[in-house]
Write a structure and sequence with these properties.
The structure holds three protein chains of three kinds.
Chain A lengths: L1 E12 L2 E12 L3 E5 L6 H8 L7 E6 L2 E2 L5 H6 L2 E3 L12 H11 L4 H14 L15 H11 L7 E5 L7 H16 L3 E5 L3 H7 L2 E6 L2 E7 H6 L1 H8 L5
Parallel strand pairs in A: 3-8, 3-9, 6-7, 7-8
Antiparallel strand pairs in A: 1-2, 1-4, 4-5, 9-10
Helix pairs in contact in A: 3-4
Chain B lengths: L7 H21 L7 H26 L7 H19 L3 H22 L5 H21 L1 H4 L5 E2 L7 H24 L1 H11 L1 H6 L4 H27 L1 E2 L6 H14 L5 H18 L5 H15 L3 H13 L12
Antiparallel strand pairs in B: 1-2
Helix pairs in contact in B: 1-7, 1-12, 2-7, 2-10, 2-11, 2-12, 3-4, 3-5, 3-10, 4-10, 7-8, 8-10, 11-12, 11-13
Chain C lengths: L1 H30 L6 H19 L3 H23 L14 H23 L16 E3 L2 E3 L1 H23 L1 H11 L1 H6 L4 H23 L11 H14 L4 H21 L5 H15 L13
Helix pairs in contact in C: 1-5, 1-6, 1-8, 1-9, 1-10, 2-3, 2-4, 2-8, 2-9, 3-8, 5-6, 5-8, 6-8, 9-10, 9-11, 10-11
Classes of the chains: A alpha/beta, B mainly alpha, C mainly alpha.
């Protein structure tokens, strides 16, 4: 059952084709890895999926309902939650409040939001910083916080944009643990990452993009040994 | 229990208590301040406190640094002034009308500047404010232009005005406190801190930005209308950019994005300016200088000093994340 | 013939506006802020030119560069003392750097206006003309000798600035910083110095405009307010950070105002610019020549 369907999405920035007829689906409960060299269009695709950019052609369908053109906040309320490549938290709000914002915005009653936020903070080992302003956190802790924001209300699909980039192994493990745990409970993920070991470990299926187009979409092991993919990452000689 | 600011609920409560403390002090002042002139000075301070609180809501808590606060005060004053001048409307009609009209215009401005930030927002609101002032100034047949309008009074005794204005101020402050403690407060701050992230978390950006503009304008309009009936005179000078400068000074000096900051700042700055008036009108120089110094070195304003003093008296210091993480 | 007269007058005014606007545009290009005290640089220039000539009896040709230098000094000082928090890494104002700039330059403007008002006095001073000839006729067009001379000087200075930014060592550093601050500093460019130079240049140009126009618009403490607003309009219209854009927009505004004052309304002539500003900010916030940048 397709949760998210991307159909022939293209995007141009001036003369540059950032996305070229991208088509794939993420089924309910799947944990799909999205890999590809820098500049391949992964973040552009995520920006379109989460409402920050408009596709020039093609459409995106969530649970059978077209979502192209909806604003980010509307998409969030439909269950499309994301992380940003450059971590975004609310620096002058406490860690707790950071989570409460999203809880309330997505419809949780205050008491329930408070309870869930504290649980999440516990899971993310951020309890000691609960009342500190997010701006006082280290980079890795902010990433954890942003990561946690995606799960205040279980999303239909979580779009994670390089959550493991430049992060301490302990934190990486915490996030991976949460992903594993929630995936087992049926959470759908689209995980963008360069961290191959994690992709291999977590994602049964991987999609590889290069120069705006999807060049591979199969079981992860197969993708990683696909000569087209290797060429994209390492150049012709290595293929 | 140690008094620390770790818990934001605690922090907001302490700020509210502080504000109420200031109000209590001001309420008791007429016992010592018998002079009607100085009571008047305090009343005008309350007018500024309302404008400052309104601007703080918009700029300090929602991050929209509009340069139009004085314009909305002027609009409120003129709505009630014009209604009484042309239609003999009583203040009890004029004042609510001022609030509604100011709110409507604030709503409109908010919609217009939705996509603008930082300098673009400042420029647009500045232009809007100047256009408002110029229109009022030039529409001589309707507004008598720079000559201003005479406005009927409301209360016979100055002390009545004193406590009515104070009462309105207290209500406004309490309202703001509850607003900021509610989910709405989280949304506004999120918009201030990172609008893009806020959208991705489901916050309705358009709705809350517009609400902030509307509410801020409504409060300013109310302040202006009340002031109009107190001073019994309104003129386009109410909307001068230098008036906005004074309002901004009050908030920055008192403490941007704090509850007591704009209130304390307003009283301090205005009363001090009256004292300095006797020394030859150096007030604006001093305040501008203070704003520069505070903005440059003490972003939290005077409130920041209080906060740090209070924290130092607490038994437990705020926990600091260890470097190893 | 009225048309030619209005057009040429408009263009001349446009040249002076350009002196104001180009500095502002440069500042925006480098620091991404609007300097709300820009009008006060104009004011300082007007006063320096007028008062030095008045009190020391020196020829205005000598006090003109004095005004330029005064503006440069003020600009430099402003950047060094107040603009540090805009550089990344300064914790206190963090994400609200733009707002910091708004507040601090706004306060600076208030400070300067009132300082001059108190120290020098609220009365206006009429600047000395550069040239004694009061009326010059070129075909159907008539203007005062000073106005023409001033326009000529403005044009020369504008060309000089253009050449400086385009071809000189520091000019190219400035262009680099404007395009990519981080990249420029990684390449070894002293971005702080570039910012200081730009602020100084901007102050100098505005002061020059104030000086050149002081025989026409007397030097008073708040004389800078009008030119400042015009320059904001121009900078937005031309696209913040685009020098050719600012130049073209200045000329357009000058001509528009010239015609508008005569054909539409004299009393509201200052609102044209404001309305244009709002329209542009709403519909084409990147101006006629500016560039969009990627946000997310």
């Amino acid at each position: 059952m397709a949760c998210l369907s991307i159909n022939s999405v293209s995007k141009f920035f001036g003369g540059h084709k950032a996305l070229d007829d991208v088509t794939f689906s993420v089924n309910e409960g799947e944990l799909v890895g999205l890999i590809g060299p820098n500049g391949s269009g992964k973040t552009t695709l995520l920006n379109i999926l989460s409402g920050y950019l408009a596709a020039d052609s093609g459409d995106v369908v969530l649970d059978g309902r077209p979502i192209t053109g909806l604003r980010p906040e509307a998409l969030a309320r439909l269950g499309v939650l994301r992380m940003f490549q450059l971590t975004r938290v609310f620096p002058r709000m406490s860690v707790l409040d950071n989570l409460l914002v999203t809880g309330s915005a997505l419809g949780l009653p205050e008491a329930e939001a408070d309870g869930r936020a504290r649980e999440l903070i516990e899971d993310l080992t951020l309890t000691r910083m609960m009342h500190l302003d997010a701006g006082q956190l280290s980079g890795g802790q902010r990433k954890l916080l942003e990561f946690g924001s995606c799960f205040m209300v279980p999303p239909r699909i979580a779009l994670l944009d390089e959550p493991f980039a430049a992060v301490h192994p302990t934190m990486k493990e915490i996030m991976a643990g949460v992903i594993r745990h929630r995936h087992a409970a049926g959470q759908t993920f689209l995980l963008v990452s360069h961290d191959m070991p994690v992709i291999v470990e977590l994602c049964p299926r991987a999609i590889c993009m290069n120069a705006g187009a999807v060049i591979a979409d199969e079981k992860t092991r197969a993708v990683l040994t696909d000569p087209v993919v290797i060429e994209a990452y390492l150049g012709e000689a290595a293929a | 229990m140690a008094v620390t600011f770790n818990d934001t609920r605690m922090r907001d409560r302490i700020q509210l208590v502080f504000s109420l403390g200031i109000f209590a002090l001001v309420a008791l002042l007429p016992a010592i301040v018998r002079n009607e002139y100085w009571q008047g000075v305090l009343i005008v301070s309350m007018y500024f406190a309302m404008l400052a609180a309104a601007w703080n809501l918009l700029a300090g808590y929602t991050g929209q640094f509009s340069l139009a606060p004085a314009a909305f005060g002027m609009i409120g004053a003129y709505v009630t002034g014009l209604l009484s001048y042309h239609f003999n409307a009583p203040p009890l009609v004029g004042i609510p009308a001022a609030v509604v009209v100011a709110a409507a215009i604030g709503f409109g401005l908010g919609r217009i500047v939705l996509r603008l930030r930082g300098p673009y927002l400042a420029l647009t609101t500045l232009s809007f404010a100047e256009i408002c002032r110029l229109v009022i100034s030039n529409s001589i047949e309707i507004t008598r232009g720079d000559l201003g309008l005479n406005v009927p009074g409301l209360f016979d005794h100055r002390l009545t005005w004193y406590y009515v204005m104070l009462g309105v101020l207290v209500v406004i402050q309490l309202g703001l406190y509850f607003l900021l403690r509610a989910p709405a407060g989280l949304y506004l701050r999120a918009i201030r801190d990172d609008e893009i992230a806020a959208a991705s978390r489901g916050v309705k950006i358009v709705l809350w930005k517009t609400n902030a503009f509307t509410l801020s304008a409504a409060i300013s309009g109310l302040a202006g209308a009340l002031y109009g009936h107190f001073a019994q005179f309104v003129s386009p000078e109410l909307g001068l950019l230098s008036q906005t400068g004074i309002i901004v000074s009050m908030v920055v000096i008192g403490g941007l994005a704090t509850l007591p900051g704009p209130i304390g700042g307003a009283f301090l700055v205005y009363v001090a300016s009256e004292f300095l008036r006797d020394f030859g009108g150096y007030q604006l120089i001093v305040f501008a200088l203070l704003v520069i110094i505070f903005a440059r070195f003490f972003r939290e304003g005077l409130w920041g000093f209080f906060r740090r003093a209070i924290e130092r008296t607490g038994r437990r210091p705020a926990p600091v994340p260890s470097a190893a993480e | 013939m009225l048309l030619i007269d209005l057009t040429i007058n408009g263009l001349i005014i446009g040249l002076f506006y350009a002196l104001m606007a180009i500095g502002l545009s440069l500042i925006f290009g480098i620091l991404r802020i609007v300097n709300f005290a820009h009008g006060e640089f104009y004011m300082i220039g007007a006063y320096a030119y007028t008062l030095i000539a008045l009190f020391f009896g020196i020829s205005p040709w000598l006090t003109l560069p004095c005004a330029f230098i005064a503006g440069m000094a003020l600009g430099w000082a402003t950047e060094r003392l107040l603009m540090r928090p805009l550089y990344s890494g300064y914790a206190s104002w963090g994400v609200m750097k733009d707002e910091y700039a708004v507040i601090i330059t706004f306060a600076l403007s208030l400070l300067l206006i009132n300082l001059v008002d108190k120290v020098i006095g609220p009365n206006g001073y009429r600047g000395p003309s550069l040239v004694a000839t009061t009326r010059v006729e070129i075909g159907p067009f008539m203007a005062s000798g000073h106005r023409l001379m001033a326009a000529g000087i403005a044009l020369l200075v504008l060309i000089a600035v253009g050449l400086f930014v385009r071809y000189s060592y520091w000019g190219r550093q400035i262009q680099a910083v404007a395009q990519n601050r981080l990249g420029a500093s990684l390449a070894g460019i002293d971005t702080a110095k570039a910012s200081a130079i730009v602020f100084a240049l901007s102050g100098g140009l505005a002061a020059l405009a104030g000086a050149l126009l002081s025989p026409i618009i007397n030097a008073t403490p708040d004389v800078g307010a009008f030119p400042a607003v015009k320059s904001y309009v121009i900078v937005v219209l031309g696209g913040m950070g685009s020098i050719p854009g600012a130049a073209v927009a200045s000329l357009i505004l000058g001509v528009l105002e010239s015609f508008g004052a005569v054909y539409i309304s004299y009393g509201y002539r200052d609102t044209f610019g404001l309305v244009i500003l709002i329209m542009v900010l709403l519909f084409r916030p990147h101006g006629l020549f500016g560039e969009r940048s990627r946000e997310v």
